[in-house]
Structure formats: structure tokens, C-alpha cells
Design brief:
By secondary structure, this protein is an all-alpha fold. About 70% of the residues lie in helices and about 0% in strands.
Length: about 325
């Protein structure tokens, strides 16, 4: 939970309703603030706080001011007997439902259709899930159960995306992708394709051109990954990049071929960028060498002139005389 809140944010996220204030007023003064914290935290986060440190001091002070008590919850045990009793009262007050089969089905559908296709970061995913439980007023399951459920749904989403891309591959594309992993006498073409550019030079330039011809020979259209989030493409590409040709060959077709497609489609643009960089570096080296060669030749010619010191002296004297006159 964030620690710094503006006045506007406190008013928007942590203000108790008149019904909330009336509900809290029926409890002893010693537990009013703790109950208010439990209620407001659940409404904001979809779960209960485990300790005082879960709430920012500004939030505690804001809640205390609304119910007219001191901003002190040090003696309140959020997970103690009173805390647990207050949690049950809060659930009844908010009419919070349980995470039953119907709710779990709705959660699964929401996560698969609305959230996972956007490739959220872990923190963004946690915020989305927290907001869902808070908005639905559903008791959030334990961390172990929820983590297993989210991992299972993410794995299912990944399998579905691999299957979608795999279904777009025709027989010719499948054959060409599999050929990348075959040993052609110089090792697997995939190994050469995944290698980084070497030092600037003719050999590196020719190697990059060969890579470009190889990846273009696969005839994979950019539309093959159409509709797939760019972050998902990067994630699958990284997954393929860390595996060797031998490791990729061990995967079944439904995984191996889409993974290769996720790697090879954006690889063409990378190779083109690498070629441009190589050409710039090679051109720069040629220019530097040419300048050095010209300077060296001029110095050699200057050394070869007889009486060059006298010529220079006479030239400077004539120039001075011309300026005086």
C-alpha cells in the first residue's frame, strides 16, 4: 500500500459514509478506530490489514478525525479476537459474498478476457485483482489458493496464444521453421541466426547479410503475430532466445513452432538494425584510416622537400614585407 496520500486522495478513497459512521458508533471507543481501519481498508483493497504498518499514518489520522477519536491503533490487534470479530461485522455490514464456484468462474473469465491479454506487470496485476474483489464485494481467497489460480490461468492464456499463432502457420512455414533446428553440416541455422554481430569488418558484414537472407527465406509475415500484445511477443521471444536448438527440438510442435515464430518475426528488424550499425562503424573506420593515410603522405612529402626551412622562412619574410608596405 502507498504511504503518501494527498488530501484529495484521502477524501476520495478513505472517507466513511454516514452509514459507516453509524455502524462504527455502536462499538466501544477502544475499538472504534480499529474497526474503521478494517472497514475502510477492505473497501479500498478488497482485503483486511494484518497490522498497523499496512495503513499509512495519514490514512489512520484521516479515519480518526471522521469518528472523533485519537489517531492511535498501537493497542489494537488486527488479527486478535476483537480484530477477527470486527472483520466478521465488516463483512456483514458490506454484504460481502464468498468466493464460491460461480464467483470463481466470473473471476476466471474476467482475468482471461480483460486482464491477461494486456500483459500487466506483477504490481499492476495485483492492483487489478484487488480492485475486482473490492468492487464485487467478495471475500478474497487465501494467498496460496489465489496464486495457484492466477498461475494456472496465465499458463492457460499462454497456451492459447501459442496455439493461436501455431494455427496461422501453413505447412511450408512449419517445414522451414523446423529446418532451422536441423544440422546442415555447420551446426543448426538457428544457432547462427541467434548469434550476435561480431567486430566491425567484412566477415561480420557478410555474416549479418547471410542472417538476413536466412530469416527472410522463412517467409513469415508480420501479420502472423497480429493481435498479440507487444509485451507478450517480447516474453515469448526471450523464452526462445535462452534455449538452444537442441532444447527447442525437444518441445512438441504446438510449442516449438510458435516459439520459433515469436523469435524469428521480430528478428528481421533486429538484423537490419545491426547491419546499419555495422555499416556506420565500418564507414567510420575507413574514414579514419583514410585521413591518417593522407596526413602520413603529406608529412612524408614535406620531409622530402630540400631546403624547406629556407623556403618557409623566405615566404614568411615576404609576407611581413607585403604587410608593411
Amino acid at each position: 500500500m502507498k504511504r503518501l496520500w494527498s488530501v484529495d486522495e484521502l477524501g476520495e478513497r478513505w472517507t466513511l459514509s454516514p452509514d459507516d459512521v453509524a455502524f462504527i458508533a455502536g462499538n466501544a471507543d477502544a475499538g472504534k478506530l480499529g474497526l474503521a481501519c478494517q472497514l475502510a481498508f477492505w473497501r479500498s483493497q478488497g482485503r483486511f490489514p494484518d497490522e498497523e504498518a499496512d495503513l499509512a499514518p495519514a490514512v489512520i489520522a484521516h479515519l480518526a478525525g471522521q469518528i472523533g477519536v485519537e489517531a492511535d491503533v498501537e493497542s489494537y490487534a488486527f488479527t486478535g479476537r476483537s480484530g477477527r470479530r470486527h472483520r466478521q461485522l465488516v463483512l456483514e455490514h458490506l454484504a460481502v459474498g464468498t468466493f464460491d464456484h460461480a464467483t470463481e468462474a466470473a473471476f476466471r473469465s474476467w482475468l482471461l478476457s480483460d486482464i491477461l491479454p494486456r500483459e500487466p506487470t506483477p504490481s499492476a496485476l495485483e492492483d487489478e485483482i484487488t480492485g475486482w474483489f473490492a468492487a464485487r464485494r467478495v471475500v478474497r481467497p487465501g494467498s496460496y489458493r489465489l496464486d495457484r489460480l492466477v498461475r494456472s490461468l496465465r499458463a492457460g492464456h499462454d497456451d492459447a496464444m501459442l496455439a493461436a499463432v501455431g494455427d496461422r502457420l501453413d505447412d511450408g512455414s512449419r517445414s522451414r521453421l523446423n529446418a532451422l533446428l536441423a544440422d546442415d553440416g555447420e551446426g543448426a541455422a538457428y544457432t547462427r541466426l541467434s548469434a550476435d554481430p561480431g567486430k566491425p569488418g567484412l566477415d561480420s558484414l557478410l555474416a549479418e547479410i547471410a542472417k538476413l537472407e536466412l530469416v527472410r527465406g522463412l517467409e513469415l509475415s508480420a501479420e502472423l503475430l497480429g493481435g498479440v500484445h507487444s509485451d507478450l511477443v517480447k516474453r515469448f521471444r526471450r523464452r526462445a532466445a535462452v534455449e538452444s536448438a537442441w532444447e527447442l527440438r525437444r518441445h512438441p510442435d504446438r510449442i516449438r513452432l510458435p516459439l520459433l515464430a515469436f523469435y524469428c518475426v521480430p528478428r528481421e528488424a533486429e538484423i537490419v538494425d545491426g547491419l546499419v550499425d555495422l555499416l556506420i562503424q565500418i564507414t567510420h573506420r575507413i574514414t579514419v584510416k583514410a585521413e591518417r593515410r593522407v596526413v602520413t603522405e603529406l608529412l612524408e612529402e614535406a620531409k622530402a622537400v630540400r631546403g624547406k626551412t629556407g623556403i618557409l622562412f623566405k615566404g614568411r619574410a615576404a609576407e611581413r614585407n607585403r604587410k608593411v608596405s
